[in-house]
Amino acid sequence: MIELARRLDPSRWAVHIACFKAAGVWFARAEEAAVSVAAFPVTSFRHPSVLGHLAAFADWCRRQRIAVVHTTELYSNTFGLPGAALARVPVRIANRRELNPDKSTAQIAMQRAAYSCAHRVVANSQAAADRLVTERVPVNRICVIPNGLDANRPASIRSVVRPRKVVVVANLRPEKGHDVLIDAAAELLPLVPDATFEIVGGGPQLGALVARADARGVRHAFTFAGHCDNVPARLEAADIFVLPSRSEAFPNSVLEAMGAGLPIAASRVGGIPELLDDDRTGLLVPPGNAPALANALYRLMVSPLTAARLGAAARRLVEDRYSFGRMVASFDSLYITELVRRGAMPLRYLEAAAS
Predict the structure, then answer these.
(1) What percent of the chain has pLDDT over 90?
(2) In this structure, are residues 111 and 76 in contact, taking their beta carbons and an 8 Å threshold?
(3) Residues 315-343, buried b or exposed e (16+ Cβ, 10 A)?
(4) What is residue 17's three-state secondary structure?
(5) What per-residue string of b and e applies to 57-82 under the rule 16 or more CB within 10 Å gives b?
(6) Edge to edge, what strands does the sheet with 222-226 contain?
(7) How far apart are CA 331 and CA 327, in angstroms?
């Protein structure tokens, strides 16, 4: 979403950012693209103060004459869509970027109620769109626009003779399957003792994962790097990318690894098979299956030609299908189509965009 805000045509769109807190790792990059930023410090949807923030957001939308409100995830969907409806914003777009493995029934129901205020709900994968259907979101409101990547960023030509360094980029949460990688490493290291594993990402599972690596006798092979801002450099320094998730919608980390030309071993879950074609652009394994993951990693380590072939094919696919340019053009078209459909923009703008 940050890259979308940064790359929309400023001659056509004036981007205003509404947030709960004007801070965070990526805030400065997002702020650069904004005409204005407004914070609505909601701390709990259960507290009566949320009604005041909702009214303030609706008033802000009216004063800024907002034409399109585009929310990004569960909490902004839940807050922003009803607020935009209250302000009678002409077009209201929701996002669905996950399959909700860690969300409560109440949270899912709350978001589903908010979706009723949206004109369209954009899923970033067919897997996420299918999940919306199971939550009874009308099919005619759902569209799929995959995440994008800077396909113009150069990638190194990889000719690694001994691919041994494995990297995973994912928050340390149970659904990401880091425990499966640790168990796979225990099977792999007796065969490839110089293999190493770097885990990039922070989260609540750190202590448990370090303890598991100790218990399995593989702690020496693991680096827990924590949150890192230099993910492209981490990918550049690696030989193999792995994502052993139990649940995924459309992981940006896999897109990034594909763009870096890395060979990938990942779980066959959610939207990952939409990104990776087994044995053509990556290797897919059943989720939670440590022996299968160990076998896939072993295959990449002992066959550099296979690793290079898969990495090169993944890079070509990103260039052809998942560029930021394609993503931004899709959202641009969606905004204009919905504005014209609701009488907020003359038809000639749609015709001009189509030409």
Answers:
(1) 77
(2) no
(3) bebbeeebbbeebbbbbbebbbbbbbeee
(4) strand
(5) bbebbeebebbbbbbbebbbbbbbbb
(6) 222-226, 196-200, 165-169, 240-243, 264-267, 283-285
(7) 6
Q: What does the pLDDT read at residue 150?
A: 82
CB 268 within 8 A of CB 287: yes
Summarised one tens digit per residue, pLDDT across range 266-306 is 999 999 999 999 999 999 999 999 999 999 999 999 999 99
Residue 113: CB atoms within 10 A of its CB come to 13
What are the tokens at 59?
Answer: 């008033």
CA–CA separation, 169 vs 228, rounded Å? 9
Tokens coding 212: 């598991």
Quick: pLDDT tens for 164-222: 999 999 999 999 999 999 999 999 999 999 999 999 999 999 999 999 999 999 999 99
The CA distance from 272 to 281, in Å, is 11
